TrEMBL record:
Residues 127-225 bind DNA. PANTHER family: REGULATOR OF RPOS. This is DNA-binding response OmpR family regulator. GO terms for biological process: regulation of DNA-templated transcription. Gene3D superfamilies: 3.40.50.2300, 6.10.250.690, Winged helix-like DNA-binding domain superfamily/Winged helix DNA-binding domain. It comes from Dysgonomonas alginatilytica. Keywords: DNA-binding, Phosphoprotein, Transcription, Transcription regulation, Two-component regulatory system. The modification 4-aspartylphosphate is found at D51. It holds the Pfam family Trans_reg_C. GO terms for cellular component: cytosol; protein-DNA complex. Residues 127-225 form the OmpR/PhoB-type domain. CDD domains: trans_reg_C. GO terms for molecular function: phosphorelay response regulator activity; transcription cis-regulatory region binding.
Length: 228
């Protein structure tokens, strides 16, 4: 399994390369954003480990570049920036998971394995369209339509809508949504689910159309069909 490590701190990069290599991974190190961008463009990787604070190109900018190029390689951000806003920002711009420094190496390996396992499952899933009344979600194209209107969503909003539509007419508790959209170790006390449900409602439940997203008090959220 080939990993791209983007890290400018020599002490940290040596520690990570040594540990990952001993764990059976093949690791290529990029010490700045410019080199990382070239390597991301030139080769396919099983996973990218990305620092945010780089000497030239910011890690967030690299995230944007990677997703703009429609490169769907799993990206695990490993950063000293550990505030909730830092995590949410990285996830919004395309990161699949976020691990704050300092970290336990066993947790890093577990997250790498979880992300690559999830990527393989997604790769083997046939292309499909999810529908709920006049709302359509095109999985491979990352495109949403409500009637004749195309809806623009961030990556996290797309993931949230996808899990709701995959489980339409079923109540999903916040814990399950956090697990599926933000990762198994995301802070369960956060109100990020409620915030993103609000974002989705503003974009999906548009004027002139039936409201689809419902809050089930004390239980969670669901998307309900009305025309089936």
């Amino acid at each position: 399994m080939e990993l791209l490590l983007v890290e400018d701190n020599i002490r940290i990069s040596e520690f990570m390369v040594k540990g990952l290599t001993e764990s059976g991974f093949s690791v290529v190190l990029a010490e700045n954003g410019t080199d990382a961008r070239s390597l991301i463009s030139q080769r396919e990787w099983d996973l990218i480990l990305l620092d945010i604070m780089l000497p030239d190109i910011d890690g967030i900018e690299l995230l944007q570049y990677t997703r703009y190029k429609k490169i769907n390689t799993p990206i695990l951000v490993v950063s000293a920036l550990g505030e909730p806003d830092d995590k949410v920002k990285a996830l919004d711009y395309g990161a699949d998971d976020y691990l704050a420094k300092p970290f336990h190496f066993k947790e890093l390996i577990a997250r790498i394995n979880a992300l690559t396992r999830r990527a393989k499952l997604n790769y083997n899933t046939p292309s499909e369209i999810l529908e709920c009344d006049d709302l359509k979600l095109y999985i491979d194209e990352h495109r949403i339509e409500r009637g004749d209107t195309e809806i623009k969503l961030t990556l996290q909003e797309f993931k949230l809508l996808k899990i709701l539509m995959e489980n339409k007419n079923k109540v999903l508790p916040r814990s399950q949504i956090l697990d599926s959209v933000w990762g198994i170790n995301y802070d369960s006390s956060t109100n990020v689910v409620d915030v993103y449900i609000s974002y989705l409602r503003n974009k999906v439940d548009i004027e002139g159309h039936t409201k689809l997203i419902e809050t089930i008090k004390g239980r969670g959220y669901m998307i309900r069909t009305h025309n089936e």
